[in-house]
């Protein structure tokens, strides 16, 4: 089972946007059973996928996509507890802070990859270093090599690259890749989240799906 975290040590940087689209990109393969785990009080990922509020904590809901389920896990229970006897090929977690104990509580399975969104928000880049340091601590704790993919969501790619250069000593043995950038597009991205539609359904944004699929297959 593949376990993907979408996280960042800062609010409003695009974690939910990235989590739902990663789940959608994985679910393009009809044989993939995908579970999106929303670990945030605000349950934006549950809303996006089901078009509704959660019926309660840890209640797995079907979505309009036949191979995607969603579950609200604000207490950050372990994956084993959430999944029970169900079988999934991929699990994507929308997680609002990668604090060490939180991640440990959720990911007692080996995480396949950590995806870090960075949108245009002014303070996002300033928090890259401590986000990477936390992921590095998590990798050290588990003893696994955890690939990290930074996904620029409308942010300036040169600035992201520079910020990444400044982080080299905090990343330990992490492998950090920078994905191709997703363009700044407030209208379609805002509409996507509000309407619960993948952004690649809007004209001009079709490229987002293969871009994320390629990032997923690179880890
Ligand atoms: N490529 C993009 N272009 C423009 N805006 C974008 C892009 N990607 C994401 N955004 C915007 O960034 C904002 C924050 O996104 P999102 O809600 O996914 O962040 P978050 O990290 O989940 O926030 P929170 O901490 O509140 O859960 C949204 O308004 C979204 O539309
Ligand atoms: Mg969110």
TrEMBL record:
It holds the Pfam family CbiA. InterPro entries: CobQ/CobB/MinD/ParA_Nub-bd_dom, DNA_Partitioning_ATPase, P-loop_NTPase. Signal peptide: none annotated. Residues 9-132 form the CobQ/CobB/MinD/ParA nucleotide binding domain. It comes from the Bacteria. PANTHER family: COBYRINIC ACID AC-DIAMIDE SYNTHASE (PTHR13696:SF99), P-LOOP CONTAINING NUCLEOSIDE TRIPHOSPHATE HYDROLASE (PTHR13696). This is Chromosome partitioning protein. It comes from Chromohalobacter marismortui. The lineage of its organism: Bacteria, Pseudomonadati, Pseudomonadota, Gammaproteobacteria, Oceanospirillales.
């Amino acid at each position: 089972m593949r376990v993907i975290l979408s996280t960042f040590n800062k609010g409003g940087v695009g974690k939910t946007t990235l989590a739902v689209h990663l789940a959608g990109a994985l679910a393009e393969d009809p044989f993939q059973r995908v579970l999106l785990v929303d670990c945030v009080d605000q349950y934006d990922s549950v809303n996006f996928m089901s078009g509704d509020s959660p019926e309660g904590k840890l209640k797995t809901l079907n979505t309009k996509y036949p191979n995607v389920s969603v579950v609200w896990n604000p207490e950050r229970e372990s994956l084993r507890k959430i999944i029970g006897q169900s079988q999934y090929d991929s699990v994507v977690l929308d997680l609002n802070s990668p604090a060490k104990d939180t991640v440990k509580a959720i990911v007692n399975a080996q995480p396949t990859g950590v995806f870090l969104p960075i949108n245009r928000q002014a303070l996002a880049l300033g928090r890259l270093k401590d986000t990477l340091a936390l992921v590095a601590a998590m990798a050290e704790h588990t003893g696994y090599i955890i690939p990290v993919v930074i996904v620029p969501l409308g942010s300036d790619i040169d600035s992201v690259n520079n910020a990444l250069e400044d982080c080299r000593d905090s990343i330990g043995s992490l492998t950090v890749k920078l994905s191709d950038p997703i363009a700044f597009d407030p209208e379609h991205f805002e509409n996507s989240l509000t309407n619960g539609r993948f952004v690649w359904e809007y004209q001009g944004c079709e490229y987002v799906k293969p871009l994320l699929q390629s990032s997923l297959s690179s880890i």
